[in-house]
Design goal:
Rossmann fold; globular; six-stranded parallel β-sheet; alpha/beta; about 40% helix; about 15% strand; Arc Repressor Mutant, subunit A
């Protein structure tokens, strides 16, 4: 009996440590999932069954970046991978055409199973997570003790976003954002925003220009 080919999945995120964590999660499922290498900040350039859009470092899961993936004719289906399960956000992105909305609290086997269901044509929406941190994967600042949400806030601060935009994009109250900032600052040993940005730049919170080796990617015809 012939076996099914693995699902071809593109990991869409501009942080090397995040993508590496996902690669480790899929490592034991090579017969079911084949990951496509990407260059940070560039469109997917080969046909894939699923684009797994990791929302880390994005102000929201309904950003223009998601719309760009949805419009890409080389992507059969798009799945958002996130901890943010505000119902208004879930409704918005699924209405826009996302085929799945998966929680970062899913263990690897459950994530692979969900992707297989999406590939089979089913809309898959995870239950809202009860825990704030994923069970697998990785994120900048984890080794320094930052929780996932603290790390997300520091990533957006490093990008230069003010608290109001962070709160709006993450669907958090301004007081919740301030609470995450205070707890993160204590762990980072900083007291000012400028210090936090400098710390973030030194600890992997600026998105990567090149995610994989340059030899893996053909240059653009115009040399850019």
């Amino acid at each position: 009996m012939p076996t099914k080919p693995p699902i071809k999945v593109a990991l869409v995120n501009d942080y090397e440590v995040v993508v590496t964590g996902l690669l480790h999660m899929f490592a034991n499922y090579a017969d079911r999932v084949r990951v496509v290498k990407l260059v940070a900040g560039r469109e997917i350039r080969e046909r894939v069954d699923i684009a797994l859009y990791d929302s880390f470092g994005q102000p929201s899961a309904d950003t223009p970046a998601v719309e760009g993936v949805l419009r890409n004719p080389l992507v059969a289906r798009t799945v958002v991978y996130t901890w943010n399960f505000q119902q208004a956000l879930v409704r918005r992105v699924t209405t826009d055409g996302v085929s799945g909305y998966l929680s970062k609290t899913l263990p690897a086997h459950a994530l692979v199973h969900a992707l297989e269901q999406v590939h089979a044509g089913k809309m898959v929406i995870s239950p809202a997570p009860k825990a704030a941190n994923p069970t697998g994967g990785n994120w900048p600042g984890r080794e320094e003790g930052l929780s996932y949400r603290e790390s997300e806030v520091i990533a957006l601060i490093t990008q230069g976003l003010p608290n109001a935009e962070i709160a709006q994009g993450m669907y958090l109250s301004p007081n919740s954002v301030k609470s995450y900032i205070r707890s993160a600052y204590r762990k980072m040993g900083v007291v000012r925003r400028s210090q936090a940005v400098s710390w973030g730049m030194r600890h992997g919170f600026s998105s990567d220009y090149i995610r994989f080796d340059p030899e893996d990617v053909q240059p653009d015809p115009d040399g850019s």
